[in-house]
Amino acid sequence: MAVVVDFEKARREGVKTALDRINALVADDLIRVNQVIVDKMDSPVALIPQLAGHIIAAGGKRLRPMITLAAADLCDYQGDRHISLAACVEFIHTATLLHDDVVDDSDLRRGQDSAKALWGNQASVLVGDFLFSRSFQLMVQDGSLRVLKILSDASATIAEGEVMQLMTTNDTQTSEAAYLDVIRAKTAKLFAAAAEIGAVVAERPATDAEALESYGMNFGIAFQLVDDVLDYSAEQAKLGKTVGDDFREGKITLPVVLAWRRGSAAERVFWRRALEDMAQEDGDLDKAIALMRKHNALADTIARARHYGAIARDALGIFPDSEIKRSMVNLIDFCIDRSY
After folding, report:
1. Quick one: 15-337 is in which CATH superfamily?
2. What is the value of pTM for the model shown?
3. Closest CA to 261 of 227, 296, 289
């Protein structure tokens, strides 16, 4: 009797296991991180913990603080500085989400009403500023100028990335290099900082810190590339997320860059109308996805993600084999193969 193996199901279960495994390895520390987050969100101004709590509890995977905790474990760190610094990383990330939803005029965040939709632009911006301020308080409390430099530099770079993205929005002639500059700054820099500080608190040599910075940077690039593909994927709808938000907002991501460069003159007329003039019509999103598939733009974006994932994997090569190292490698596969 023949046995039918559902390889897609096995792949998805393997991906989920990769995330679950690293989560389990840092679970105790992550509980402490979450407690710091709750404590530092507190304020006598009632709207602040209410709004901040809404977005923090909205179902994020805590990938960035998990990477800080895992990197510290990889470097055999025995103290507890990584706890507050992981919380600091999450505050920076959450502040950028609040600001992003205002800039993008997004009413949904992870399938739920965004803070911007519930409380408005002003409250979202100001609570985002509060969380940035809390993150800097945590950096100062840590007392390390090197940590302060890494995380403050990351905060500044993220803001630059947001402005760079604003400049490329609606510009169909954006190059792949310019797009990569945006995601290095906007997304990957915080992953890089989150990983690097794991080596810094453990007082490991510069080579280890540089390796972890490379891991985080390339992981972050791969992560954003996959996110940009998922925005044009039916998998988004399964999560209660809206398909095509980037398209509707006129964002130029790599799938668009590749489809534009590989397309005909007639196809470029479509892209200009839809993304430059923002004169979108019913059926335009489906046409955009069809053009991306025609020119292998989605598949090739995933291929690019695998390339950066391989660099992230190689960056960990200098560390001895361990369960936490294997989990950090497997997390790369989660990043690239995730469908949720």
Report:
1. Farnesyl Diphosphate Synthase (1.10.600.10)
2. 0.92
3. 296
